[in-house]
Amino acid sequence: MSEQESLRCSSARNRGGVQRVEGKLRASVEKGDYYEAHQMYRTLFFRYMSQAKHAEARELMHNGALLFFSYNQQNSAADLSMLVLEVLEKSETKVEDGILESLAKLFSRMDQNSPERVAFVSRALKWSTGGSGKLGHPKLHQLLAVTLWKEQNYSESRYHFLHSSDGESCAKMLVEYSSSQGFRSEVDMFVAQAVLQFLCLKNKNGASVVFSAYTEKHPSIEKGPPFVQPLLNFIWFLLLAVDGGKLTVFTVLCEQYQPSLKRDPMYNEYLDRIGQVFFGVPPKQSPSYGGLIGNLLNSLMGSGEEDDTGEEAQEDSSPIELD
């Protein structure tokens, strides 16, 4: 028997072993012996890990978590979900779409208000970037954003869309968010905030896509440009100015639209950062803002960030706090 055939046979035996074990565990859960089944899962996890059977351990914990979720055993399910992450971390498993999708599936089944869910997503994002301290893999952010959107958790969904590469879906979510929870007079503010934050994260493409899709799809926005709302015209001109890179254009634009920009105290702070990133404006020596606004802006931009204006650098910024 060749080495390749031997490996196939070994894999088939391992798979068969996992299936037999899963059958016994499922029977325990179906009988309502949740505690006993949970402890058996944990025992098998450590046994598999000691034998370096990482794939088997991950599969068993993932399926076990979904089984416990189906019986509304949230604590046991969340514990096994964290063990899935432990396998990924200790085995140094490479990021693949299939794994990211499985993690998003576990996230979607967790209680929306549980602290375990917060811990899970934080750890999953950290693993997805190799523990480098970056913000997380864009694909995982996109999957999380869609789940939160379905839950109508628009604020958290927006956070994850900002760090994904899916500006189109972000725009659709914002249209729904604005239509269901915003005032008609604020339709322009929903997209303005998103565009400015995308630009602060050095993501010009995301900013352009979300603006175009939002203004095309929102039922309360007449076709443009130009638009009826001055703030939308400002954002449109700003995106053109960012492409051109001329400081004088940026400066005049900000001066001319001050009445619109005063509608939200964060706009000018975002624009200060955009001026630094795209137009070479030096940072303020003595920031005029502080307290909550200063903390919010600093959390969006990060501290000690390298001066890199490339569009692909958006992952290097630190997390953004959203209201």
Question: Features of this protein?
Answer:
323 residues, mainly alpha, 70% helix, disordered C terminus
Which radius of gyration do the C-alpha atoms yield?
A: 24 Å
3D shape: elongated
- Arithmetic mean of pLDDT: 87
What's the total helix number?
Answer: 16
**What percent of the residues sit in helical stretches (DSSP H or I)?**
55-70%
Helix and strand succession? HHHHHHHHHHHHHHHH
What does this structure look like?
The chain has 323 residues and is mostly helical. It has 16 helices and no strands. It has helices at residues 3-30, 34-50, 54-70, 74-90, 97-109, 115-128, 138-150, 154-162, 167-181, 187-200, 204-217, 230-244, 247-256, 258-261, 266-279, 291-301. Helix 1 (3-30) packs antiparallel against helix 2 (34-50) and helix 10 packs parallel to helix 15. Residues 301-323 have low confidence and may be disordered.
How would you sum up this structure in a few lines?
It contains 16 helices and no strands. The protein has helices at 3-30, 34-50, 54-70, 74-90, 97-109, 115-128, 138-150, 154-162, 167-181, 187-200, 204-217, 230-244, 247-256, 258-261, 266-279, 291-301.
